Amino acid sequence: MAVERILRIVKDKGGAAVRVLCTDFEVPMLNPAELAFLTEYAATMSPVAKDINILQAETNVQMGWLLPTVNLLITKLDRIKLSLKYCKPLVDALQLGLKMRFSHVSCSPV
Question: How many helices (H) and strands (E) does the chain have?
């Protein structure tokens, strides 16, 4: 992800490297709050992206993988949410969307 790359540059080379890039490309520098948000965003979306890649695989994926993957993702997001400051609404929206989308297949028939 592009966000992960920006964060890696900040971590490896410091804020000065990003400042130079922003100056070269004539874009505003990211402030500390924006960098904190991007850090949380990357941490939140990383498990989502990984699970989507698992489910999009063309081989070795059956329907039996869907619900366990979705349920595990919801659990991962619950754990991540505890340490978030900025991205809690994003986690809430992701979890609500997953629950609404897959509620009809996750309910056991009576």
Answer: 5, 0
